[in-house]
Amino acid sequence: MKTETTIQGLSASLNPARSARKIIGFVPTMGNLHQGHLNLVREARKLCDVVVVSIFVNPIQFGPNEDFDNYPRTLEQDQQLLADVGCDIVFAPTVEQMYGNKPRLTNISVSGITNDLCGLQRPGHFDGVAVVVTKLFNIVQPNYAFFGQKDYQQLAVIRQFVQDLNIPLEVIGVPIARSEDGLALSSRNGYLSEQERATAPVIFQSLKTAEQQLHAGKTLEEALAGIRQTLTDAGLVMDYVEARTPELQKIDEFNQDVVILIAAKLGKTRLIDNLQIKYAAG
Questions:
Q1: What are the binding positions for (R)-pantoate in this chain (predicted)?
Q2: How many C-alpha atoms does 193 have within 13 Å on its Cβ side?
Q3: 9 and 55, same structural domain?
Q4: Are residues 212 and 156 in the same domain?
């Protein structure tokens, strides 16, 4: 496995694969990797001849009060994990390599689907994601790019600008990786105290309960109210508990497939999760 820190070095490493028309898979990350990230690499390995993973903590997607400076940077550990699951090239650029020394005057905004949910709580976040992911797509030029479904809104944003800008690749969403107790794997889980970590699985439990209630005939609003009550009783402070269509349109009735999305704070740690619930007519 190679590690490249410059765009030029990465291009040189990928040129033989491009010349041979090999299929290139790409997994963008901010490092501090866990099994969820490694699952993305495993999926990429199944479909692709060459797998590239980027490790870059992107400053422009962090808000003023967010944890850019404190975000864990664990490159050596990440490299070992990636080597073990079959990554071919790690791309670990500096901020200067990605953004240069001159002011950035170009922005990428996806309207509509970024106006609420995490977009409302984190203004500018998805613009920062769209810019860095577009830059990485241009640098790597993969055939496939792999993203986890835990960041459901982010995945929808990336699919949208890939379609709108005719970026020639296929975006593949990979199911959420979970601990045995159901907690969605996240780099932020490391911020939880022991007691908070014991409480956190209530998020997924509340989603599964809502799924059972919907299939038993409860209304969508009743199911969402149940989640809110359960999380509040467990001591979480909610940013949102919302139901959407798979395309993130608002929905009031369970008369088609639905995604329930949650963002909530447990102590100082903001956790997100979601569950896609199938609608069975009749």
A1: 61, 154
A2: 6
A3: yes
A4: no
